[in-house]
Amino acid sequence: MRTQDMNRDWIATAHTLSQALPYLQRYTGAIVVIKLGGHAMGSDDAMDSFARDVVLMRQVGVNPVIVHGGGPMINAMLDKLAISSEFVDGKRVTDAATMEVVEMVLSGSVNKRIVQAINRQGGQAVGLSGKDGHLITCTPTNPKLGLVGTPSKVDPKVLRTLFDAGMIPVIAPLGAGENGETFNINGDTAAGAVAAALKADRLLLLTDVSGVKDGTGEVITEMTADQIRSLTADGVIAGGMIPKTETALDAIDGGVRAVVILDGRAPNACLLELFTPHGAGSLIRG
After folding, report:
1. pLDDT digits over 224-249, tens only?
2. Strand positions, DSSP E, the chain
3. SS3 for 6?
4. What residue segments make up the domains of the chain, in order of their start?
5. Known catalytic residues?
6. Closest CA to 33 of 60, 65, 61, 63
7. Is 172 a residue whose pLDDT tops 90?
8. Which CATH architecture has domain 29-285?
9. Which conformational region is residue 240 in: left (phi greater than 0), alpha (psi within -120 to 50 degrees), or beta?
10. Could you tell me which residues are beta bridge partners of residue 206?
């Protein structure tokens, strides 16, 4: 129902939309690859909020691509099935039995949950894995790790076809080997490889931290590749942040314009990064 009383919140919303116009224009036609980590998926409400953001991005002319993880869900299913895991250098060995569970969880429940959330919000999402349409071809990362792969070739033809049809691709990080075997791929690595193949304007790595932090614990809002290398050498960038920054550097070397590491649990994180002047998280350029 319409009313003559204008709530201040709605006035602020209209002002925000007006302020966002230059950024909406800036990203028209742009390709944005979003890595949605398992820890960032959160509750159904958080998933619906993320889905609305993605649908809005598509509505204003952005071509979003979602590459998702699912580590916590895989761990839960392995525990449920009483399948034990062996680790080498902190990485899970993926044998044939584990691979069956990984594919079931990633291509099944996790992928379809994201697709359904986007479709509920009025988008047109299509779920696929790196095995579909020869999207991601892999080589073994390390024989000791079993069926863990590193992308050797990415053919984005199927993604461009989906863009032309107004669809939003949602990709499970699995790939095919030269002999047809299935490989499990680190989600960040898969997202970086897809972004590089598409020469994406942005790669957004949604995680459970607010960004790359300096020695005092403050988030560094803008960084160069050289700064990342220096902070890594000094031990400031350490632990789980190292593979994320390595993914960022590889993506930029591959032709991605910029990478952002940001907290996917924050409401409207993607919209804040793309359509506001202050952005969100840590922006990394070459």
Report:
1. 999 999 999 999 998 888 889 999 99
2. 31-36, 63-68, 87-88, 91-92, 125-129, 136-140, 149-154, 168-172, 174-177, 182-184, 202-207, 222-224, 258-263, 282-285
3. coil
4. 29-285
5. 35, 38, 71, 188, 244
6. 65
7. yes
8. 3-Layer(aba) Sandwich (3.40)
9. alpha
10. 36, 262
